[in-house]
Design a protein that fits this description.
Elements: E1 2-3, H1 14-35, H2 59-91, E2 94-112, H3 126-139, E3 145-152, E4 156-163, H4 166-174, H5 184-199, E5 229-235, H6 245-254, E6 258-263, E7 270-274, E8 277-281, H7 285-294, E9 299-301, H8 307-312, E10 317-326, H9 328-350
Parallel strand pairs: 2-3, 2-5, 5-6, 6-9
Antiparallel strand pairs: 1-2, 2-10, 3-4, 7-8
Helix pairs in contact: 2-9, 3-4, 5-6, 6-7
């Protein structure tokens, strides 16, 4: 259990003060009754059972009866104290982690952030064009689809695990910027890893220093058969790092994951100044089309990319996700039940029930 306002738990410290104040009030009431000749209990007067002509009960039975009476007298007070503690906990807005089933599909937006993405053969730059195309996809995000963000240059990195929060996805996209070389294979591998994590039952923040158990590689399946997950790859298609993008595409195809490629740039290309070196860079549509064909995906130029194509063949699956659910109402309701129970029992024992 966690709390949104944990500072409010300090109000539990007020409960003992309340108990002390209640005892002082009760002692004052008893002193006033004694001064007025009042009796704290019915039947304790001179005309009680012992003076009514009957014999006094046995000492053991009388002691047991008094002990039972004292215990019963304390039940209402205990219930009220427990209610006050629950009210203090409710003020801290408690949350419980609950595994909730839901239907969802997974999209991983995979961005080429190599130095060539700073080219301006499309305005303002290839990187900005890729971001605009990606945001159009995020804007069309259907309910039940989660979107993650992966970036790659000479290595791949998961920037944001798949989530349904559009604002988080947009913020992750806005933080991207060009750097270093290009490895399409690393990008595809990182995106497959993000899909594995999204579909795993192990929480993303779980840590263990134990080595993972050895596992057999999954048997290849038909390309595109893993229809509830897809990779959307934004790149100019230029590759100058290992592994071979064709091998990475085949790995995705064997997993049944489609790679939908979106080409950024122009086939005519432009000359780019990288650290004082003049580099000719252009859009390599052939590589991107090959990746799409091998994985049963699609290829689109960024300038005319249609977000609907990304979602058309995306199916959804039943998954179970751990979510934090606020249980303030449940805790407050339990406190109210205890409070009412304590009051009712107290009134019943004092004979003041209506």
């Amino acid at each position: 259990m966690s709390f949104q306002w944990p500072i409010m738990l300090l109000t539990i410290l007020l409960v003992p003060l309340f108990v002390l104040a209640a005892r002082r009030i009760e002692e004052g009431r008893r002193l006033k009754l004694a001064a007025l000749g009042g009796l704290s209990r019915p039947g304790a007067a001179a005309g009680g059972p012992a003076s009514a002509g009957g014999a006094a009960p046995a000492g053991g039975a009388s002691a047991a009866a008094r002990a039972g009476g004292r215990f019963a007298d304390r039940i209402p007070a205990a219930l009220v104290i427990a209610a006050l503690v629950l009210f203090a906990i409710a003020m801290a807005r408690p949350q419980a982690t609950v595994a909730l089933p839901r239907v969802e599909g997974t999209i991983v937006l995979t961005f080429d952030v190599s130095g060539s993405m700073a080219a301006d053969d499309v305005q303002p730059t290839r990187m900005d064009s890729a971001k605009a195309a990606a945001k159009a996809i995020v804007d069309r995000q259907p309910q039940g689809v989660v979107i993650g963000v992966v970036a790659f240059s000479d290595a791949g990195l998961s920037i944001l695990p798949p989530t349904s929060q559009q604002a988080s996805v947009i913020q992750a996209i806005d933080r991207l910027g060009p750097s270093r070389g290009t490895s399409l294979g690393q990008g595809i591998a990182a995106a497959l890893g993000a899909i594995d994590q999204a579909e795993s039952d192990t929480p993303s923040n779980y840590y263990s220093n134990r080595s993972a158990p050895p596992s057999e590689p999954p048997a290849p399946v038909a390309p595109g058969s893993h229809s509830d997950a897809a990779i959307v790859l934004f790149s100019d298609g230029e590759n100058n790092e290992q592994p071979d993008p064709a091998a990475a595409a085949q790995a995705a195809a064997d997993r049944g994951v489609r790679v939908m490629t979106i080409g950024v740039g122009t086939t005519a290309g432009t000359t780019l100044d990288l650290d004082g070196f003049k580099v000719q860079t252009r859009l390599d549509e052939q590589v991107l089309q090959q990746i799409a064909d091998v994985t049963a995906g699609t290829y689109q130029p960024a300038a005319s990319a249609d977000p609907a194509v990304v979602y058309d063949r995306l199916a959804e699956r039943l998954v179970s996700r751990d979510e934090d659910i606020e249980i303030t109402a449940l805790v407050a309701g339990a406190g109210l039940i205890l409070l009412v129970s304590g009051v009712v029992i107290s009134l019943a024992r004092s004979g003041r029930m209506p």
